[in-house]
Hints:
By secondary structure, this protein is α/β, with parallel strands linked by helices. The chain has six helices and 15 strands. Among the domains are: 110-256, Rossmann fold; 270-328, Ribonucleotide Reductase Protein R1, domain 1. The protein has a six-stranded mixed beta sheet with strand order 10-9-8-11-15-14, with helices on both faces. A five-stranded mixed barrel has the order 1-2-3-5-4. It has a two-stranded antiparallel ribbon with strand order 6-7. Strand 2 (41-46) and strand 3 form a beta hairpin.
Amino acid sequence: MDRCNVNGGKPANTGRPAKGQNPVMGQNPVKGLVIRGSRNIFTVRVEGGENEIECGIKGKVLKGVEGYYNPLSPGDLVEIGDGQIIRVEKRRNEFARYNQKGQAPQLLAANVDLVVCVTSVSSPPFRPRFLDRALLQADTAGIPAAIACNKYDLSQDGEDPDIEERLSDFERIGCPVFRLSVLSGEGLDEFKRFISGKFSVLVGQSGVGKSSLIMALIPGLDIKIGAVNEKFNRGNHTTTQGILLEASSSGTRIVDTPGIRRFAPAGIRSDDLVLYMREFAPLAGKCSYGLSCSHETEPGCKIMEAVHAGVIHEDRYESFLRIRKELSEKPDFPDNE
């Protein structure tokens, strides 16, 4: 049985590291891995061991993370000195979303190998536009992505034509899709092999079953699971902050993120959107009006021609128009570099 390697080798819980167990107070700076954090207090696993400590940020500001809603996320590698975080190492990549309340990009995970966009066929309903946005964010960050469609046992006769059409289109444009059921076990073995040894971040709306899926992949975890709100047919938030979980037997690491009802992309400018939606990108600049084409009314627009030919799905094109309009109304923010 896999075990969670979060709190000194013991199964994960929501408690804080024991007081008085700070192995880096008064010592030379050491490196560590951010496990979780909230309100600028971060739990860090010290390099070379399983000790975890809670750290604040020295001076409350870290160089290189200005302009973000949160300075650190699970997966960040940091340097600790005298019990405080004094530096964050350059990230290999970062997965973020735009926090509309804070009007700034919000980091969800750093230095990951894979983004898993989790959805469900029902309860809550299948939301392909959420998948369009999360997949776009992964492509923008240069991180491979996959889709995990949970609760597949709830689809009529195991298949819904509309849902299958969109899932098949995601596969057609090169995104792996896994049809899963935590209840019946359908597809779990294949998905577990796919993420084995990888560092993944799971993102999805509340109620799609991220926590249940993680518990099926890493037995022994203590994760709170919430029921779907029957009145609004959407999930209730049960994960309140991102947390890094690990299966020591396989080397699989997963960041479980809070449920997101609406995913707003970050680090993308409206004029550049066509360059990041994977089946749109090969046609960028080939319209009669080049890169200045709005892809809405111009004759000779290769994007609209591709939509009419079925090369680009109509729903993906509609997502493109909606996201571009939304991005054009946002204030400037740092690029993901």
